[in-house]
Every structure is written in C-alpha cells, then in structure tokens.
Amino acid sequence: MEQKFCQSCGMPLGDAQEVYGTEKDGSLNRDYCIYCYKDGSFTGEMTMEEMIEFCIPFTLEADPEKTREEARAEMQQFFPRLKRWAGSSAAK
Q1: Is the pLDDT reported for residue 89 higher than 90?
Q2: Which regions of the chain does DSSP assign to beta strands (E)?
Q3: What pTM value is reported for the model?
Q4: C-alpha angle 28/31/35, rounded to 5°?
Q5: For residue 45, how many other CB atoms are within 10 A of its CB?
C-alpha cells in the first residue's frame, strides 16, 4: 500500500482517523491532517516557504541525524508536489 501524506505539511498519514482533517459537516478529509485542515478550512494561512520553516523542527525531531539545511532542501523538493502547493505561485 502506498504511503499517504498530508497534502499541506507532508506528515505521513496512516489509518487512524483522528489524524485526518475534517470538513464543516464533520466528515473526514483524507487529503490533509487535522493540524493543517479543520472544519472545512486550513488552520493557518502561510506560504509554502513558511510551512517548510514551520515543519523543520518536527522533521529534525523525527530524524536527529538530519541537518536543518538537509531538511529544508528535501521539503523544497517535496512540497511543490503536494496538492496545496502544486501549481501555485507559493510553490515557485
């Protein structure tokens, strides 16, 4: 089975429903995590670069061997392919 990722922050999404974002009617949105998308809208307005900077500490916590620069470079390659950032001027 292919690993799913939040289409905003890149967080891995598993089968646990509590990690998925929600629509206004309470139904799950399987594209985004609860931290990025809740009650039918994004929880924070930011650019892709701001999201990358926000996510760096979490990436370093998950992989302490990685440097800030490595984490940033990886996300700069990965994030433009995520639904929230694909094709937007924020992804450029």
Answers
A1: no
A2: 4-5, 12-13, 20-22, 28-33, 37-38, 41-42
A3: 0.86
A4: 75
A5: 7
